[in-house]
Amino acid sequence: MPKFGLFGGSFDPPHIGHLRLAVAAANDLGLERVFIVPSGQSPGKHTSFADDYDRLLMCQMTFGGVDDRFCVDDREIRRGGVSYTIDTLQELQEEYASNMDASKSWYIIAGADCLEHFHSWHEYRKILKLATLAIARREQGGAPFKHAGLSPTERGRVRFIDVEPTVVSSTEVRSAILGGGAWTPLVTTAVAEFIQTQELYAG
Predict the structure, then answer these.
(1) pLDDT at 58
(2) 34 phi and psi angles, rounded to 5 deg
(3) What is the C-alpha to C-alpha distance for residues 45 and 61, in angstroms, rounded to an integer?
């Protein structure tokens, strides 16, 4: 049975932690395809630091050509408005896996910090009925279920992925750029050159 992954986020900018997680998830879960989906507007966020087109380009630079299983998908940007994972998941399932048991075929890929607030996601229970949550394992190996707000049954829908430790976030990359710190090793060479050329995140 083919397996698919959905990896969404603002990717503002995409960094090496994102790339390592996507690769680890694809390998560990045996995914046939991983859809990289930059969000139009994340719930709770009113704006992006880079515009939609630049974020999409940076995702293509980060994930394109690395692995033929990766597909950068612009549907949330084209859709406009607030992006909800459940809407994108259902669309993708209808397009790519209409005759399969979706709950055994689809994975939502996310960083370790996602688990603690996943219960606040829009229709999170429905997401867990349609897909498995694939979470990057914390460096210490801890699984913060006591903070996750998930029932024992819902916890059974969580899979942990071992990823090469990468202490980096998009916020840290932006702060380093703004503050003149060392940030280029945190992103791919192509993205670093693009950020510098376009003078992104420089204030």
Answers:
(1) 98
(2) -120, 120
(3) 24
| Phi-psi region at 166: left, alpha or beta (left = phi > 0; alpha = psi -120 to 50) | beta
Give the DSSP letter of residue 82: B
d(CA 192, CA 109): 24
Query: What band does 89 get if pLDDT is binned at 50, 70 and 90?
Result: very high
Which pLDDT tens digit goes with each residue over 110-156? 998 888 889 999 999 999 999 999 999 866 555 555 556 888 899 99
What is the model's pTM?
0.91
Distance in angstroms (rounded) separating the CA atoms of residues 170 and 160: 22
Q: 120 is in which domain, residue-wise?
A: 4-165
- Spatial CA neighbour of 21 closest among 139, 124, 111: 111
Q: What would the mean pLDDT of 21-25 be, rounded to a whole number? A: 96
Residue 10 maps to which CATH number?
A: 3.40.50.620
Can you tell me whether residue 57 is helix, strand or coil? helix
Residues in Cβ contact with 42 at an 8 Å cutoff, skipping those fewer than 6 apart = 9, 10, 82, 83
Domain count, the chain: 1
Q: Cα(86)–Cα(91) distance, rounded to whole angstroms?
A: 9
